[in-house]
Amino acid sequence: MMEKTSLSILKTYWGYDRFRPLQEEIIHDILLGKDTLALMPTGGGKSLCFQVPAMMQDGICIVVSPLIALMKDQVENLRKRNIKAIAIYSGMSHREVDIALDNCIFGDIKFLYLAPERLYNDMVQERIKHMPVNLFAIDEAHCISQWGYDFRPSYLELSHLRSLKPNVPFLALTATATPRVVTDIQEKLGFRSENVLSKSFRRENLAYMVLPEENKMGRMLKVITKIGGTGIVYVRNRRETQEVARYLLNHGISADFYHAGLDMQTRSKKQDAWTNNQTRVIVATNAFGMGIDKAEVRFVIHLDIPDFLEAYYQEAGRAGRDGKKAYPVLLYQQADRDELWESIDQNFPDFQYIQQVYHHVCNYFQIAYGAGQGMTYDFDVVDFAKKYKLEVIKCLSAFKFLERDKWLSLSESVYLPSRFKFEVDFQELYKFQVQSVHFDPLIKAILRIYGGVFDFYVAINEFELAKKIGKPSEEVVRMLNLMQKQEIASYIAKTDSPQMQFLQARVDYKNLYIDTQFIAVRKSHKEEQVKAIYGYLDEKVCRSLALQRYFGEEVEEPCGACDLCLVKAHKAGLDESIGKKIQYLLLDSPRTLHALIDAIDMGSEDDRLRVFRQLLDAGTILLKEETYHWNAL
After folding, report:
1. Where does the Helicase C-terminal domain lie (predicted)?
2. Domain range holding 604?
3. Closest by CA position to 400, among listed 305, 289, 523
4. Does the chain have fewer CB atoms within 10 Å around its N or its C terminus?
5. Mean pLDDT of the chain
6. What is the pLDDT of residues 121-138, one digit of tens each?
């Protein structure tokens, strides 16, 4: 049998002949059993860094990610390559999770994708103890750090993995991390020794542009027309996605909008149309982009200032993955700067507000005092906020701090198809078919279409079943529910909602503990992050240099491609031309300052005077009897 090498695995399962930069070094360290933090830019091929070494070893790789849609995509892609993988995330029933975990212990599953909030569950932690784990891969690892731009309290539970499997290495992956966050990730995950592998944060083919602009829509149109190709326009809210897409369509540019409020099917359709170049421009909130590997994106335009430089770098980095010239463009007004600072209060509500939100959400689900622990519900945050006249963003911030102190957990919105499993054996099911003839066509259709339905939950499509047996889909749903009621089967209807889980029983006002000191520290850090964005907007030297220095990379060489470098190059060329003109004029005849400046036909008066003073200070021009002469020596 051929020896499993990283290259043979890469070729066999993914069809690539060679690795991208840094991938081999990361894989090498993982195979040596080293805890590793890998800093790789968006689109750098992070997933192969854990998938390849996991395939080279016996046992299972546990991948933790907060991005449920991305988890589902990766599981699907692995299965297409005949690699066994499953995912456990919010919204799955206790029984589904139980079966999936059993398959990881007793089956030949190679990858278990796990949402971080699932580690609140004692059953999950207990089962991991019995799994033959070869690697823990932590995606979006910056989420574990309170100094990161997307801190998620559920990530703090990852420290339990070290106690469950002390000898299993961690691979922490992120596209963006400041030096402080790099240190914090390693501490929080209990790295046995420091080990950071990183690529430069410079993207040589990206020409960053930051432009103050009163008419942002008009400038956006000019940028898109001039650059050509496909791109992304990022905006702050859902309403703006539709308005901007409509504006582009009205000006003859193929565009569509995308945000998290759309159902999964609609989102997939819009994403596919853009990926396949049927739509030229997608106008989106920051919900768009994770896991999308479209290489030929020529521009990414931000019509609003992002909340964090990390988020901006990641979103801007979706341009030019093919290595060709691309343009991340940020358009802003003074009002945008002011709004960013004012938004800080919304992200850090006071203790009384958090108390209020907690009791409102308990009442919303009619949870009695002393009850609710472990309960999970579909949760519509917009409906909740409307009912209690609360601001959505401030509500979500309150939930984040309630989660950190382990009162509840709110997952992202995720589409879960309907799931079905027979709970009786084949003989019992046959008896039921004989006794209940009405159900026979439906049962036969399920057995024909879906394999493994006696062993685990399978995703089903009620409309497809209805078509097969010639009945309305409502009747199929009714029959599925009846089979569940008679304990013949388990049926879980589809959902496209975030999941609210109560981690503790409901308490009264005086027993609700919230770490207000932590909130104060986080607020102070957020103020620093906003100031860092202001610093980037006001940068005078080079945009790429500013980003690299923010991420702790010591560099001196400007990129030569950003708006600041282009202005500087233009200015240097202009200065040289003005200097040559001054030389020509003064060699022709000495002149007064006024006559000299008036005779130059390029640049502004300030430009001419500046170059004149430089030449005078250098001794190249001399003043003699109130006229200026060229010093030929």
Report:
1. 219-365
2. 563-630
3. 523
4. N
5. 91
6. 889 999 999 999 999 999
